[in-house]
Fold this protein.
Amino acid sequence: MGRLVLVFVLLVALLISLSNSLALYVDWLWFGEVGYQAVFTTILLTQALVGGLFGVVFFLVFFANVYLAGRHQRYWGTVDTLVLLRFAEPLRSHLGRIVGGVSGVLTLIAALGGSTHWESYLLFRQAVPFKQTDPLFGKDLGFYIFELLFLTYLQEWLVGLLLFATVGAGALYFLTHGIVIGPRTVHVERQARLHLGLLATVLIGAKAWGYQLDAYELLYSRRGVVFGAVYA
């Protein structure tokens, strides 16, 4: 049964891959016909670059944090809670494979999502100043045209990455009893406190950055009497 499921999944993946390859080939021919094949190549290379960068960063951060939590060795708890460690031992013995597999799947999703923002990345990379600032924040107008969109996505992506890393690390600490929930108390080992506290601090910083970016987007607001930022 397991082999049949695996074969079915592989066949579906193959069909999807062939379909995408055919569409890609048709686009390649069309761009070549109109003399813009270099443009199509630039799009593909940029998508690969952006997706690769997001994927590599996601894998390194997620894998490192979850693997570190899974390597937690110090245990605390009652006899009853320590008995549950037998479920954590198989996980620890295959920790690299399990965490690597989960990281690989999530990395693929992160890379595919990041590659769709190739255009905003190019705008960010090719940003030029307008040499005229807005009266509210004093930012060059080029910032709003070229940079803000990509920075907004980057901030949202970073928050998502940190949430996944925090939840994953917290789950591993719970399984290895770095976090023990008792009937009246919750005990958190020092390593878990420091690790999760650091992740939470960076996450709060990323959220604060998002609020700053949201403030810049007030200039695009349609909620007032006129377009842009207005007083209530």
